[in-house]
Amino acid sequence: MARDRRADTSLNVRPNATACASLHRLCLALESGADRLKDIAEIGTLFGQLSISGEYAEIVRSYISSVADDPVVKMPAIGKRSVVLFRNSSFSLVLQGICKKSKHVDGFDPTILATVPENGMISVISGGENLTLQKYEFDKPIDISIFDIDVRLRKIEGCSSLNHGKIVEYDAGNVMNIDVNKGVSYILKLSETAVLPFQWVIDKQSLAPMFPCATLAAVTRMETLVDLSLAFADDRLPREQAIALMKSLLRHPLHSVRWKALQGLSELDDGSTAHALECMSKDPHPHIRAAAQACLAAD
């Protein structure tokens, strides 16, 4: 089925082709049918022109005017320190605020790093004098879907200041850290909506991987369904239906969901766990094979 690349019609404000020429040109390019930023001709130039033009302020002014007219107007494009300027099934363009936060604010922990789950680019539009960028690289090539506690990050020499209009491109799987010295700074972020299914969380001091986590909503939805099925089995959900769910998810394309399903099946203990373990001992993912083989050996 063809992907719908039209802009999200839930956004309150659309760029005016005259007042926001740079933003309009960029939005047209993002609606051209490409799925990846690198497939759009001169995407960096278009993004840079928008950053320098300041036209995003016109969108902000439009929202402010809307509130003046109706204080309770719904604005789905505005989130916490963020405004969505454009979004379709392939790309999103966001004006985003970043600030210096303590460990206990918004669940943010300054002691960790994480791999970036998507391709994209950023440009500072205010407060660049307060920002520094540090990039990292792994000490050997990695497959982000196969977590490896033995690899290490290393700093790429030299931090760089994020001056106004400077564009920083990044690829899925990269690791970078933006330090905010004070206050709130704002960036433009253009990114692909397609993301890697997992990212690694990394200790900032030792530069050692700590654990992988899912980035796709599909993973958390399936894992939640498994948990709910276990909680409701024999009470609000027929046991046979819960078992059928687990067996179905054993064929899920994401390995973390397959393993979650196997764990659920073992808790329901319907007698098929041993057979499922035998099958998973030949799973294409090395983590699943190793875990299944370890379970079989323990029995």
| Total beta-strand segments | 13
Separation of the first and last Cα atoms: 46 Å
Structural class of the helices, strands and pairings? Answer: alpha+beta
- Structural domains: how many: 2
Tally of contiguous helical segments: 8
Low-pLDDT segments: 102-108
The strand order across the widest sheet is 1-2-3-11-5-9
Q: Label the CATH architecture of the largest domain.
A: Sandwich
Percent of residues in beta strands? 15-25%
The proportion of residues forming helix, as a percent range, comes to 25-40%
Give, in order, the helices and strands.
HHHEEEEEEEEEEEEEHHHHH
Rg measurement, Å: 23 Å
Essential attributes:
Jelly Rolls, alpha+beta, four-stranded antiparallel sheet, 13 strands, 24% strand, globular, 299 residues, 2 domains, six-stranded antiparallel sheet
Can you describe what's shown?
By secondary structure, this protein is an alpha+beta fold. The protein has 2 domains: 21-214, Jelly Rolls; 217-298. It is 32% helix and 24% strand. The strands form 3 sheets. Strands 1-2-3-11-5-9 form a 6-stranded antiparallel sheet, covered by helices on one side. Strand 1 and strand 2 form a beta hairpin. Helix 5 (239-249) packs antiparallel against helix 6. The longest helix is centred in the last third of the chain and has 16 residues, at 217-232. The radius of gyration is 23 Å and the shape is globular.
